[in-house]
Amino acid sequence: MAEEAKQEAAKPAETKPEEGKSHTYEQLKHMTVAQLRAIAKGNEHEALKGYTQLNKDHLITALCNALNITRAHHEVVGVDKTALKTRLKSLKKERNAALAAHDHAKLKAIRRHMHRLNHVIRSHTV
């Protein structure tokens, strides 16, 4: 029974929100749900209503909104993403036509081209 009292006394200290410390999105992402809920408990923001029912992804989003934390957005550098996306859209139309015509050779070539364009976009994402 004495051990249970020690464990209960130690628990709130582990999950106690850190007062006055600002967090980054990366820090929040690497925290446990219990740590995130402890931070949410100390905040009265509207986005954190019902924080005990939120899963980790939704809790991180709510905390980012409540604490005014901006999430890092990915951006494509070094290629014209809009041109690639436009080309992908036209390839999808060609793919549908090849499917309707049962032209397997053309279909394979179009799919490979689409795959390559998607790879280019992903490889240039920072």
Q: Would you give an account of this structure?
A:
Helix content is about 65%, strand content about 0%. The longest helix is centred in the C-terminal third of the chain and has 21 residues, at about 80-100. It has helices at about 1-15, 25-30, 35-40, 55-65, 80-100, 105-125. The chain is mainly α and about 130 residues long.
Morphology? elongated
Q: Report the mean per-residue pLDDT as an integer.
A: 85
The class by helix and strand makeup works out as mainly alpha
**Radius of gyration, CA atoms, in whole angstroms:** 24 Å
Helix content: 55-70%
Main β-sheet description: none
Which properties best describe this structure?
126 residues, 2 domains, 6 helices, mainly alpha, single chain
Topology (elements, then pairings):
Blueprint: H1 2-15, H2 25-29, H3 33-41, H4 56-66, H5 81-101, H6 104-123
Helix pairs in contact: 3-4, 5-6
Overview in brief:
By secondary structure, the protein is mostly helical. It contains 6 helices and no strands.
